[in-house]
Amino acid sequence: xxxxxxxxxxxxxxxxxxxxxxxxxxxxxxxxxxxxxxxxxxxxxxxxxxxxxxxxxxxxxxxxxxxxxxxxxxxxxxxxxxxxxxxxxxxxxxxxxxxxxxxxxxxxxxxxxxxxxxxxxxxxxxxxxxxxxxxxxxxxxxxxxxxxxxxxxxxxxxxxxxxxxxxxxxxxxxxxxxxxxxxxxxxxxxxxxxxxxxxxxxxxxxxxxxxxxxxxxxxxxxxxxxxxxxxxxxxxxxxxxxxxxxxxxxxxxxxxxxxxxxxxxxxxxxxxxxxxxxxxxxxxxxxxxxxxxxxxxxxxxxxxxxxxxxxxxxxxxxxxxxxxxxxxxxxxxxxxxxxxxxxxxxxxxxxxxxxxxxxxxxxxxxxxxxxxxxxxxxxxxxxxxxxxxxxxxxxxxxxxxxxxxxxxxxxxxxxxxxxxxxxxxxxxxxxxxxxxxxxxxxxxxxxxxxxxxxxxxxxxxxxxxxxxxxxxxxxxxxxxxxxxxxxxxxxxxxxxxxxxxxxxxxxxxxxxxxxxxxxxxxxxxxxxxxxxxxxxxxxxxxxxxxxxxxxxxxxxxxx
Length: 559
Fold this sequence. Notes:
Blueprint lengths: L3 H4 L9 E5 L6 H7 L6 E5 L6 H17 L7 H10 L9 H14 L5 H8 L5 H15 L8 H20 L5 H10 L3 H36 L4 H14 L3 H13 L9 H7 L1 H10 L4 E5 L7 H14 L6 E8 L5 H9 L13 E8 L2 H7 L3 E7 L13 H15 L2 E6 L3 H17 L8 E7 L6 H21 L20 E4 L3 E2 L6 E2 L1 H20 L6 H14 L1
Parallel strand pairs: 1-2, 4-6, 4-7, 7-8, 8-9
Antiparallel strand pairs: 3-5, 5-6, 10-11
Helix pairs in contact: 5-9, 5-10, 7-8, 10-11, 14-15, 15-22, 16-21, 18-19, 18-22
């Protein structure tokens, strides 16, 4: 039957060199037949090549010969045309795909300058939401209370919050968001195509405006780490010039929160009421949901609660959940580690750091449920902790600690990524201990795994010395901090002395973009995953998604 495939190529302009690997000599006569119709250039590699080297060498020679020739370069679009000529189905030709692309282009066609587009088309998540967030967090931070009586200050803040919310509710539904809602409310296949087209197009548009800023940010971090004002300024410009799917779902969250202003029986009201269901379905489909807005340093609690309620309903109330989170310094590979272990889709763009916190749910198969005691696992990816020296007007250093505290409080297990950079390690460890000791959940110490990243080529003896030095350093820091009221790490966190620290090699074997993926990295990540699942089985049950939603609200107010 496989020979039949080549009959479709008869009469076509096929210029490719075909390499057929046969495991039986008896099939050699078929190869001779294939050299006749159509006229394909074939290389026969059979069992006569007894070793892997003998098999690979002619393949390498053939590919090298092909690459050495001055052949005409072909774009993917042209390849699609060739595929159609050969009667090969092209996904782009399906009605759902074309319709989804059309809907996505209705949105991206309106984009000229990203910062202006966000202000005009996604207005509810801009300065007005940041102002609301500042007032809400000021209730417990009390940064500007001064000599005002506490009760009067809280009343003033409540009045300001109401005024800001009234202004937010005055924003009408924009054309962009109407098109986005239309894309979400279509069929499941259309929605999947729509989101992918939109994601790809936004990446293409953002690349031109972000490329120079990202290079500048990386250069400043490496060569001028003390230029904190410049680094913070470039970081802010990156945030302003960034446009991703998360910004549209963030707008959905704010629109849902402002739903009281939408006419009760209108078509728009019906679509807005469906938004939590769409977001819940996205979580089931493997799309991360923003938990903490990294730009406003706040959680849209009404929106998150509605999404988790819908998710609970979608999985038919079988939603006993356990939580794994990761915290660490910037660019320490937190997202990459979660993606490698669990096949998730947390953003890992070059130079782009996670802002705030994102969560993604993975369902547990039936035969594993009974072992680990839950129906699903919620993974939380957090913003990298920055050195306290990099302080911005938005109090980002406070946000870092708060996000880390929330992640630890919500989690059954916390992964702590440690950089091998000694210049930031001490400051980072101090921040980690701060987060761990601020969290007191049901009189239970956090269960932690420490991961030292980029540890390629370090001998086992040196690894043990480094582990011992790290433990001693943590114990000394705990003893010197009078607020911790403990003498050693075991008093602060729960950990297994035999598996408490992991040495994670670099993701790449060599220098990107030509570097290959490191198999050692994958093996270490897989071993860590097995250990995490074993630890989850020992963790007591903490309720379902509805309880998880309540814990989010409770812990966010307490941190």
